[in-house]
Amino acid sequence: MESLREKKGFICDMDGVIYHGDKLLPGAKEFVEWLKRENKKYLFLTNGSGKSPKDLQQKLKRMGLDVDERHYYTSALATAKFLKSQYPGCSAFVIGEPGLFNALYDAGISINNLDPDYVVVGETRTYNYENICHAVKLVLNGSKLIGTNTDLTTLTEDGIVPACRSLVAPIEAATGKSAYYVGKPNPLIMRTGLQILNVHSQETAIIGDRMDTDIIAGIESGLDTILVLSGVTSRENMEKYPYRPRLILNGVGEIPTSV
């Protein structure tokens, strides 16, 4: 714990770590106050693509946490950055929420439902058969398939629901084409996170609730890995993975030291 507390940078997942749905998790407020008090560099790095940094800032503010929007980075922003670097001025057919559309617009990527360079899929509550069929048609005609992240499921107030990779799966199956996924554990988004913080990987910890995104991303990027059991992972299902986090905590509330 002492080596964790001495880290200069912290990359934190959000859902399952800071909040669950619209409820702040126990100890999250104390943890964020500790980050500020100790002058730590910190970034909330989420595989969610539906909300913008401003949306996330306002969500936390409603829960009683005031965190400037510069402390948030999403898989939507990472996807837009990737596409801009690969093909400036490209176009895309998009299945997703406003946070994804806004990130793509801001990166100069136009929306094109007829002959786009890319088909981009993120989380959405308006996923339907018509969208799948249109995406399949476009990919078969040559559009490249992009997923904002590899999460198969996400935890909501209603329980486990399908996430991005589950929504991409029918398109992959029908076309025989594999999507390129940009969010965690892709090193692209991890390198961007470290650049934003301006800290070295060895001086940074990643805190998350998922073994298959947060913890493997930390291992492959050389970060200190901290699993919290406040989200989707239990000690039992953690055992099915061939790798382990360095520390396992019940929640982020165990990290702060007393004032």
Q: What's the topology here?
A:
Elements: H1 2-5, E1 9-12, E2 19-20, E3 23-24, H2 28-37, E4 41-46, H3 53-62, E5 72-74, H4 75-86, E6 91-95, H5 98-106, E7 110-111, E8 118-121, H6 129-140, E9 144-147, E10 153-156, E11 159-162, H7 164-175, E12 180-181, H8 187-197, E13 204-208, H9 211-221, E14 224-228, H10 235-238, E15 247-249
Parallel strand pairs: 1-4, 1-13, 4-5, 6-7, 6-8, 8-9, 9-12, 13-14, 14-15
Antiparallel strand pairs: 2-3, 10-11
Helix pairs in contact: 4-5, 6-7
Overall CATH architecture of the largest domain: 3-Layer(aba) Sandwich
**N-to-C order of helices and strands:** HEEEHEHEHEHEEHEEEHEHEHEHE
**CATH fold-type name of the largest domain:** Rossmann fold
Q: What's the β-strand tally?
A: 15
Q: Biggest sheet: strands, sense, closure?
A: 6 strands, parallel
Overall pLDDT? 96
Show unreliable segments: none
Helix content: 25-40%
Radius of gyration: 18 Å
**How many helices does DSSP assign?**
10
Q: How would you describe what is shown here?
A:
The chain is α/β, with parallel strands linked by helices and 259 residues long. The chain folds into 2 domains: 2-47 and 184-254, Rossmann fold (3-Layer(aba) Sandwich), CATH 3.40.50.1000; 76-181, Rossmann fold. The chain is 37% helix and 21% strand. The chain is built from 10 helices and 15 strands. It has a 6-stranded parallel β-sheet. Strand 10 and strand 11 (159-162) form a beta hairpin. The radius of gyration is 18 Å and the shape is globular. The relative contact order is 0.18.
